[in-house]
Write a sequence for this structure.
């Protein structure tokens, strides 16, 4: 019985430590990466905004379901091995800037991705910025100590670079 109480006590202390450290970590983070990809801004724009085509070039997206599409407003759900996630366009300046936010409010995290495109003929310089927020302190702890916040953007830009090298 004494061992069981000792093990339970250790587990409680570990969970409390994770919770306290998670609460002390910043809720928000910013990650940015810049690449030069083949093609002019119009071609790059066509690829990054054609959400229906994501499964054909992004290995982390199994399928996309467009939920609504009105002038200047688009909402879709990306389905992956992690499950579905809903996104909404919040800013769209064709061939220059595109901002998308996570529309799901019950994930424990959220944020925006902003693409900025600058022509450098015959290529385009693309800067992708994630403004993320992790609401849940346990998830914040795991994200900070066991995940690479840069990894998702790097993987996306690797896939985009390959797609554009193939001709978009």
């Amino acid at each position: 019985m004494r061992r069981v109480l000792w093990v339970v006590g250790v587990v409680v202390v570990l969970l409390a430590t994770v919770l306290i450290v998670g609460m002390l970590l910043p809720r928000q983070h910013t990650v940015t990466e810049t690449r030069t990809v083949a093609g002019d801004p119009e071609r790059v724009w066509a690829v990054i905004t054609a959400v229906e085509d994501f499964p054909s070039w992004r290995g982390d997206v199994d399928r996309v379901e467009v939920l609504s599409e009105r002038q200047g407003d688009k909402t879709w759900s990306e389905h992956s091995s992690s499950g579905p996630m809903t996104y909404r366009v919040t800013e769209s300046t064709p061939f220059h800037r595109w901002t998308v936010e996570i529309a799901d409010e019950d994930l424990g995290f959220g944020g925006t991705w902003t693409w900025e495109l600058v022509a450098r003929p015959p290529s385009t310089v693309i800067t992708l910025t994630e403004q993320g927020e992790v609401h849940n302190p346990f998830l914040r702890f795991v994200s900070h100590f066991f995940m690479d916040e840069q990894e998702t953007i790097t993987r996306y830009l690797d896939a985009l670079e390959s797609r554009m090298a193939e001709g978009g």
